[in-house]
Amino acid sequence: SSELSQDPAVSVALGQTVRITCQGDNLNNYYPCWYQQKPGQAPLLVMYGKNSRPSGIPDRFSGSSSGNTVSLLITGAQAEDEADYYCLSRDTSGNEVIFGGGTKVTVL
Amino acid sequence: QVQHVQSGAEVKKPGASVNVSCKASGYTFSSYNINWVRQAPGQRPQWMGWINAGTGNVKYSQKFQGRVTFARDTSATTTYMELRGLTSEDTAIYYCARDKSLRGNPLFDSWGQGTLVTVSS
User: Fold this and answer.
1) Residue A77: phi, psi to the nearest 5?
2) In chain A, which ranges are E strands?
3) In the sheet that A18-23 helps form, which strands lie side by side, from edge to edge?
4) B74: pLDDT confidence band, cut at 50, 70 and 90?
5) Which of A18, A22, A65, A89 is at a distance of 20 to 30 A from B106, taking alpha carbons?
6) Residues of chain B contacting residue A32, judged by C-beta atoms under 8 Å apart
7) For range B64-74, the mean pLDDT
8) What is the separation of C-alpha B16 from the centre of its chain, rounded to a whole number of angstroms?
9) What b-and-e string marks burial along A29-59, b requiring 16 or more CB atoms within 10 Å of the CB?
């Protein structure tokens, strides 16, 4: 098995840019996807693949990767972006699906 | 539109079993895997496994192997998750999610609203 590591919390001023990272040895082989989760709601897919957004997700969300670290970037953060963000991928065996520990984004 | 509607909240006693259903609509049910994910209060989501809605093939996470069973009814476009031997640690919200895996990368693109399962004596 393996883990996906995320910073527990990050804050961003309204309209500024925030980067959320997900680090794991398996990320050299698998692209993670990213979920936004607000209190009392199911996770919502916001990013997948190299840099693909599902329909309806604003283009202020983008993705990038470097080695075993993948990033979700929110450019021009809005109040409604305040949420928990989780990355999801496979473990190094490829047999299990795992989630990162989550990053709580606060928009100031 | 693609939608998954889950059954309502459950309260169970320790040692009991729980059955959660997930009805799919808006797409060809038999073409996808349905995954089950649970999330305990304040914790990260935890993957439980998947069922192929077409073939009925299943894969369970090692953590739940032997204690969970997935099933599906293609005529009702519904999948089911049964978890046995409940303890207080199984108190969580249980979600179903459609998998549109892309080149081996898991991709859960549509989720049910979640079912709260509370285990309490």
Assistant:
1) -60, 140
2) 9-12, 18-23, 33-37, 44-47, 61-66, 69-74, 83-90, 97-99, 103-107
3) A18-23, A69-74, A61-66
4) very high
5) A18
6) 105
7) 97
8) 18
9) ebbbbbbbbeeeebbbbbbbeeeebbeeeee
Query: Which residues pair with residue A88 across a beta bridge?
Result: A33, A99
Q: Tell me which chain A residues have a C-beta less than 8 angstroms from the C-beta of B45.
A: 35, 43, 86, 88, 99
Helix (H) or strand (E) holding B51: strand B46-52
Rounded average pLDDT over A72-85: 97
Place of tokens 């309260």: B11
Nearest-Cα distance to chain A for B51, in Å, is 14
Other CB atoms within 10 Å distance of the CB of residue B67: 15
Where b means 16+ CB within 10 Å and e means fewer, B85-108 reads: ebeeebbbbbbbbbbbbeeebbbb
